[in-house]
Amino acid sequence: MIIYRKANSSDFCVLKEVWLTCFDDTNEAVELFFDNAANYEAYCAEDNGKAVSALYLIRTGLNNERAHYLCGASTLPAYRRRGIMAELIKYALNESVKDGDKYSLLLPANQGLYSFYEKLGYKPKCSCVKYIFSRKELKQKASYCKLDNILDYETMQSRCFKRDFMFLSGSFIEFAADYYKLYGTKCVRNNSGFAFFEENGDTAEVFYSCYSDFSSLARLMIDSTGADHFVFTDKAGNEQTKDFIRMTYGMIKPLCGDKDFDGNDVYIGLTLN
Question: Is the pLDDT confidence value at 146 over 90?
Answer without folding.
Answer: no
